Amino acid sequence: MSELPPQGFPPTLPPAGGMPSPEEKNWAVFAHLAALSGYLVPFGWIVGPLVIYLIKKELMPFAAGEAKSALNFQITMAIAAVICIPLILVCIGIPLLILIALFDLVFIIVAAVRASDGMPYKYPIAFPFIR
């Protein structure tokens, strides 16, 4: 008889073979997709990945790493958007904000797909604010 963790407690170590469990993959996908809440809720793009990171950092290293990656990317995109706000006065800010939003949306989706495959994703532009 194999030893299974008690009900309600996810395994703390990744399964043999190095692939994250399906539950851990799901949490990693949620971490990336939680950033989309920023399009509906103020600061949702930071709160979503941050909550998942804080909840899962001890139990699921893959999900926590992906949440941290998503959080760093969203902070970077927020800084880029803040820089564009004064540029609205010279008529280039609005097109840049639209490009940033599209860039953000595309890479959130790409990262979520990669996380669903169990592969860690490194965003192309993300400063490591959270280590």
Q: Any overview of this molecule?
A:
The chain has 131 residues and is mainly α. The chain contains four helices and no strands. It has helices at 22-33, 44-56, 61-87, 93-116. Helix 1 (22-33) packs parallel to helix 3. The radius of gyration is 17 Å and the shape is elongated.
What's this entry about, in short?
The chain is mostly helical and 131 residues long. 58% of the residues lie in helices and 0% in strands. The protein contains four helices and no strands.
How would the blueprint of this fold be written?
Blueprint lengths: L21 H12 L10 H13 L4 H27 L5 H24 L15
Helix pairs in contact: 1-2, 1-3, 1-4, 2-3, 3-4
Describe the biggest sheet? none
Instruction: Specify the overall morphology.
Output: elongated
SS strand fraction: under 5%
Number of strands: 0
Order of helix and strand elements from N to C terminus? HHHH
Measured between the Cα atoms of the first and last residue, the distance is 40 Å
Helix content: 55-70%
pLDDT under 50 segments (min length 5)? 9-17
Query: Which whole number gives the mean pLDDT?
Result: 86
Q: Work out the helix count.
A: 4
Structural class: mainly alpha
Radius of gyration: 17 Å
